[in-house]
Amino acid sequence: MSSGPRCPACAEACVSPRLLPCLHSLCAACLRRLCRLGEPGRPAARCVLCPVCDAVVELPPGGVAQLTPDYLALSRGGEAAAGCDLCADGAASGRCLTCGANLCLFCCQAHRRQKKTASHAVVELENTKDGSQAGKPLFCSFHPAEELRWYCEQCDQPVCRDCVVDRHRQHPYDLAGSVIHRHGESLRELLRATQQHMGTLGDVLRQIDDMGGAVRSRAEAVAAEISLFAAGYVKAIEEHRDQLLRQLEDLKVQKENLLHLQKAQLQQLLLDMRTGVEFTEHLLTSGSDVEILLTKGVVARRLAKLNSIAYNTQPSTDDRIQFSPQERAGKCCGYQVFGSILNKVVDPGRCTLHGEDLHSARQNELTGFTLLLKDTTGERMRRGGEAVQVTITHKDKRDCSLKPTVCDNGDGTYHVSYSPEEPGCYAVCIYVKGQHIQGSPFTLMVRSRFREHQGVFHCCTFCSSGGQKAARCACGGTMPGGYQGCGHGHKGHPGYPHWSCCGQVKESSECLDGLPSDTSQRSLLRTVAL
Questions:
Q1: Is-cis flag, bond preceding 441, omega within 30?
Q2: Lower CB density within 10 Å: C or N end of the chain?
Q3: What is the domain partition of the chain in residue ranges?
Q4: Which pLDDT tens digit goes with each residue over 346-371?
């Protein structure tokens, strides 16, 4: 005989199993234990935790007893747990198909001996299909003697005949067999929808598994790339380190050789001078007058020659060797590396300026120039960080000075920008490490703001004025017949279009009318009534 389903809480065969909303079954006793019923001083819990799926199950107002019994669990082998329907003492070993009751072994024998039930069909439970109770009638919990054959549409539950005439009076009802197709079909539709979601979820889970495998594979590939990159980077850094050490060694040898050469030259010069001094002192102290006079010429020429030899009073090189870890050092083995040996020293006297209009500017217009740093050999510096100071002061107005902006480009160049507010002559002083650069201070001429033309850019006064005799032009041209302005082919006409206000021939030029230069004629020759 089948042992039937087991309770997930006590691991024993389910006795009076109750169906939870999560569709897991537990023994009624186990559910009551989970609710902590019967413990003094502790109220029963309103919800329990399903031991299978950890779902929080809120109990109905009637408690565990109001939960739906798991009839399917009972039909799959719960007979032994349910016991005999007649004596309620023994375990069910058979079932009367006529009465639909579970019977223990003793009741089965008595059932066959009694006259009223001798003709009933009694079968052993293990001889039924899978030991199930398919076809066994279910009885009403309110009327135990009545079978649940009807279905209350309003209450959505099976009822017995007594319930129809009592508790469910005036409720629409029908036979359970008549409504099962409709309710069964709705369950099948929900089942199909759920199965479809299950298929979708299965596909998504498979995709997640596939993506997990792809992520692991990609992570392994990227890890290999990182390892390869790091190995190459380490190799590049080590090679760059070896290059820097070789450069340092070469620089050290170069400086030492310069010092050794200077030392040997100075030692030889010192030896020559010592020889000349000793000989001259001996001559002056031990030689006779005649001997001194006879030897004087040779000695004087030698000493004069020794005194005329130029020599550096400072070591021919210095110990300025620095390492800059932040400076870009190009690429090594395909990787950008940093760190450079610095031995160049900026020479303010060799620094130069570059840019347009270094010596001229326009009032209220932003302008500037670029300072280029060079070392003692005249070679351009490739790094910044030097102390650069710029002052711009008006030569006539001592209280008028500009505040230029100095921008270090980091490559040995500095951009200086300013915007003069007053026209006039300015002195520009540029200092590097507190010293003037080459040509500093510079002279800067600031002109007044750009003058727009007030006249007409035309071909001739005669044409533009419609032939008016009194119309004049700043170009100075005249026409015969009493015309004051210029005309094509006549004296004073420039031969191409020009401005009537100042005579300038460039259309985008600055108007010169009213400027100090050439005012004797230009101020009188303005075009009128054009």
A1: yes
A2: N
A3: 178-308, 348-447, 452-530
A4: 788 889 988 866 788 888 888 889 99
